[in-house]
Amino acid sequence: MDWNKAFAGEGVEQEVGSSSNTATARLASARGRRPRLWPAWLFSTDHKIIGLQYLGISVVMALVGVFGAYVLRWQLAFPGTPAPLYGIVDPGPYNAWLTMHGTIMMFFVAMPLLLGAFGNYFVPLMVGAEDMAFPRLNMISVWTLGLACLVLMASFLVAEGPAAAGWTNYVPLSADPVYTGVTLGADLWLVAVFLDFAAVLMSGINVLTTALNLRAPGLTLPRVPLFVWTQVIAAVLFLFSAGPLMGAILMLLSDRHLGSGFFAAERGGSPLLWQHLFWFFGHPEVYVILLPALGIFLEIFPTFARRPVAAARVIVVALWTSAALSFVVWAHHMFVSGMSPALALPFSITTIIISVPFAVVVFALIATLRGGMLRPSTAMCFAVGGLASFLIGGVTGIFLGAPAVDMYLHDTYFVVAHFHYTLFPAVVLGGFAGLYYWFPKVTGRMLDERLGKWHCWCTLVAFQAVFLPLFFLGVHGHMRRVYDPSYYDFLRPGIFLHQMATVAAVVLVLSQALVVWNVIRSLRKGEKAPSNPWGGTTLEWATTSPPVPGNFSEPVVVAHEPYHYTDCDRRREPVPQWML
Amino acid sequence: MSTAQQPMVGAGRSGLLGVYWFLGSEATLFGALIVAAAFFRLGAAGWSDTARHLSLHTATLATVCLLGATLGFPGKVEVGFRRWKRMLLVSIGGSLFLVLKAGDFVQHWNAGFRPDAGLFWAAFYLLTGLHGLHVLAGVILAGWFGWLEFRRAPQLPLSWLRGLRLYWYFVDTVWFCLLGLFYAG
Is-contact A101 A68, C-beta < 8 A? Predict the structure, then answer.
C-alpha cells in the first residue's frame, strides 16, 4: 500500500476486510485453545479471564482494606484495648491503616472491580465483540495493576511501615518524613498509585475503543445498553482527570528526592496546589466509581420490572452532563483549606447543580419501577437497596456543598458517613447486584436465591447500622481525624455509637460468609443456568452461559434498542436486542 | 448476516482511536504540569531573569532537530521514498534533540542550577525531562518500525505508523509550549 495514501486514510477498507478475516481466524483458533492450566490462565488475553483476574485482585485487596477498617473501628470503639487478631493499635499504625484503607478501597478495590472486572467482562459481550480492541494491552493493564498492588503491599514490609499521610496524601504531611516518620513507605505509595492509574488508563482506552469501534452490526449508539454508556463515560472521566494527579505525583517525588519545592510554601511553592490537583482528579474519580454501579442498576431494574428504562436517552444525556460538571466542582473539597473565599460561591453553585442530572437518573429509575411486574430477585434487592442508600449519600452531599455548613461539618464524621453512603452502595451493593445478576452468565450456574436474600438483608441492615450513627457523631462535632475519642470529654458520650458501629461492622463482614458459601455451593452443585435466565434483552444473554471463547457461537446482529418487553397473556415477555 | 461478512461499526480504525485516547490523557498530564508552572511563573518575580541562563541557540537548534524529525512523516512528500529511510530520519532528528537536551542538562546541573535552586529549575528539569522521555520513546518506536521495514518483515499495520505520526505531532506541540514557558523572556 502506498505510504502517502495510507497516511491520508485510504486503504482502510483493506484493513477492515483483513481484520474481519483475522477475527474469524482468531475466533476459530480460540475455540480450540480454552486455557485450562494456570500459566495459560495467567497470561491470557481473553477479556473474560482478564475480567476475572481483575475481580480476584480486587477481592484480595478488599480483604486487606477491610482488615484496616476493622483495626480503625476497634480503636475508635474500644480505645487502647488490644484488637483481636491485631493487638494494641498505636497512633502511627492507626494513621497508616487510615491511609491504606482509603487508598486500597478507592484505587485498588473500587476501580478494579467496577471498571476492570465488570467492564472487561461485559462491555465486549454487550456490544457483540469477540474481545477487547487491544487484547495484549488488556493483559498488560492487569499485570500493571498486579505490580502496583505488590508495590503497595511491599510498603507494609519496610522498616517505617506504609504511608501515613491519609488517602489524599496532603502536603506537607506527605512531603516531609518529619511529620509521619515514614520515608520509603511514602515513596512506595506514590509509585503504586501512579502504576495503578497507568493500569486503569490502559483499561479505559480499551473500553472506549471497544465500545466505539467493535459494536456488532446494527448496534448504533442509541441502541447501546446503558451499562456500556456508564463504562464509556467513566473511562472518559478517568482519562481526562488522572493526568493532573499523575503530574502531581511526579512533582511530589521531585520535592521529596531532588529538593525542589513545588509544594513547599517556604520555597515559593504552594501546598494548596496538591489539593487542587488531587481534587481535580478526586471528584471525577467518585463518578468513575459511581457510574458503572448506576449502570448495573440500570440493567437490573428493567429486567426485573419487565419495563423499558424510563427516559433512557435522557439518562445518557444526564450522565454526560454530570460527567462534564464533575470537572468544575473540585474545590468544594477545599472550602476550609484557606483558598480564596471568592471561589467558594461558584464551586458551591456547580456542586448543587451537579445533583440535578443525578436526580434525573434516580427519578428515571423509580419511574421504571412504576407499573412494572416486579420480581424481587436478590440482584433486584441489592439494586433497590443500593439506590436507596446512595440517595442518603447524595442528599447529605448537598449539605456539604454549602460553604457555611461545610465549615462546621468538614472535619467531622459527617463527611465520613456521607462518603461511605456514596461509595459503599456503589462498590459493595452495586458489586453484589452485578454478581447476583451476572453470576449465571459467568459460571453457568445459578446462585441460591434464598441464601442471596439473607445475604442482601444482612448486608443492608448492617451497613446502615455502621454508618448512620456516624452522621450523628459528625453533627455533634466529632472530629474525623482523631485517634482516641476518649481523650476529649465532649466525645466520650458518643463512644457507644462507635461501639455500635464497630459491632455492626463485624456483623457486616461476617455476613459476607453467606455469599462466599453461596458461590462455593453453586459452583459445586448449583442449578445449571440457561443462556438467558432472567429474561434480559441485551447481547450478553445471546450467548451460552458461560460464554464460549470468542463470545458468540453464532454471529449476532442487533435489531432494535434494549429493554423491550411485550404484553403477552398478561405476561411481559422480553424482546431481546438480537431478535429480528 | 455474519460479523465476518458485515464488518463491525469501526473495525480497522481501532489502533488510531486508541492513540487519540492515549494522547488525550497525555495532554491532561502535560497540561496540568504546564499550567502549574505557568502559575509559578506569574507569581515568581525572578522567572525571566533566571530564564536568561538558558541558551536560546541550543533551544533553536533542538527545535530544528525535532521539526526535522517531523519531516520524516509524510505529508506532501514524493512517492517512492522508502519508509525505513523516513523512520531513520525521525530517529536521527529525535536523537539529536535528545543529545542537545542532555548537554543542556549537564551544563546547567554542573553550574549549580539544580532542581533545588528554585521553582524555575525544578519545573524546567521536570517538564523538559518528561518531554525528553516522550521523545526517547518516539525515537525507539521509530527505530523499531524502521528496522522492521528495512528487514522487509510482514508489513507494518498502518495504524501503528499513523499512531506514531500523531504521537510525534503531540511531542512537537508540547515542546512549543515548553519553549514559550521557559525560553521566552
Answer: yes
